[in-house]
Amino acid sequence: MKRITVAGAGYVGLSNAVMLARQHAVTILDIDAARIEAIRQRTSPISDPDIERQLRDESLHLATSTDPGQALAGADFVFIATPTNYDPHSNQFDTESVQSVVRAAMTLCPEALIVIKSTVPVGFTEALKTELGFANLVFSPEFLREGSALHDSLHPSRIVVGERSPRGRELADLLLAASLRPDAPVLLTGNTEAEAIKLFANTYLAMRVAFFNELDTYAAVNKLDARQIIEGVCLDPRIGDHYNNPSFGYGGYCLPKDTRQLLANYDRVPQTLIRAIVDANTTRKDFIADDILRLNPRVVGIHRLVMKSGSDNFRSSSVQGVMKRLKAKGVEVIVYEPLLHASTFFNSEVIDDLDAFKRLADVIVTNRQTADLADVAGKIYSRDLFGADR
């Protein structure tokens, strides 16, 4: 049984901690005392049914701490899953939280292998190793979906470790043994290649979202049946029937920041496609807002800020961009979001009562159609064609 510390109790950190704690002694470290207390009480601070269920398992070897000295001392492995938000001023991820944990671990558990799970710029890990003169540092990306992070950790599409060595293989075996998919593909690469895999994978997903959104925009402008076109296109097995449901744009925690970071990494490399993917998201929001404005609404209701069902995260959700554009045109906007415990959101009134929200709004904007809006179908504006996050 290994002693493992996981720094960061968000989707990536908590899902990895719970997965590893089934076989190893794991301590979750986070600066948010309320989040740590929730985990200590065996309740999940994030929306993930599998995590909520697993936390109630008394056989889980899981401890919690807000004290780095306590959490890191004696660790064999340190997994870093702290936030790396994109900073538009520096044009790259803010990696200060990652560097802070690495420096603490160098002092408190210098023999441990430090595994960066946070998404970082291409070249970051090797540069940090050189800067600190510290070799026990490896990047291993995650490929998780919000709302099903533990499921995706236990059933990985692939395991990527940024070190081609017996130590890299040991880390891959640790993750493989903790999963429920013993035949998951394992790829040992360099750290920089592993970082690129993460950013290019998410940018490809963003590109696919942008493609079907622009197909939908074309169909809407020309009064064509977008669903028929998408179904016909996706019958080609090379394209496939997935990630093809139109939306208000790609959003959430990962895709917007990862595409912008990858674009920044292209500062000395010729490209046109990566810039187009980033720009396409802005173009889509412009179209959606203009399309809503053509309905001449007096009050627009935003139904849910979260990106998709099963998620509790509405950070950078695409509907917020639409909302801001409508407000800039002088349209009154109200919001219904049960997870938002506030009376206003960006100076728009938050309506807690769904029935009242339905009455007040002339047009109800929803990224995904839901059963609780069936009685006001005539008010709904949505580009959802398939009724699912697909």
Radius of gyration (CA) equals 22 Å
At the fourth CATH level, what is the homologous superfamily of the largest domain? Answer: NAD(P)-binding Rossmann-like Domain
**The CATH top-level class label of the largest domain:** Alpha Beta
Separation, N- and C-terminal Cα atoms: 39 Å
CATH topology of the largest domain: Rossmann fold
- Runs with pLDDT <50, length 5+? none
The helicity comes to 40-55%
Number of spatially distinct domains: 2
Please identify the structural class as seen in this structure. Answer: alpha/beta
Q: What is the helix tally?
A: 14
Principal-axis shape equals globular
Mean pLDDT: 93
Number of strands: 16
What is the CATH architecture descriptor of the largest domain? 3-Layer(aba) Sandwich
Largest sheet: 6 strands, parallel
- List SSEs in N-to-C order: EHEHHEHEEEHEHEHEHEHHHHEHEEEHEE
Outline the fold blueprint.
Layout: E1 3-7, H1 11-21, E2 25-29, H2 33-40, H3 49-55, E3 62-65, H4 68-72, E4 77-80, E5 86-87, E6 92-93, H5 96-108, E7 113-116, H6 124-132, E8 137-139, H7 149-154, E9 159-161, H8 166-178, E10 186-188, H9 191-221, H10 226-234, H11 255-265, H12 273-293, E11 299-303, H13 318-328, E12 332-336, E13 344-345, E14 348-350, H14 354-360, E15 363-365, E16 380-381
Helix pairs in contact: 9-10, 9-11, 9-12, 11-12, 12-13
Protein name: UDP-glucose 6-dehydrogenase
Catalytic activity: UDP-alpha-D-glucose + 2 NAD(+) + H2O = UDP-alpha-D-glucuronate + 2 NADH + 3 H(+)
EC number: 1.1.1.22
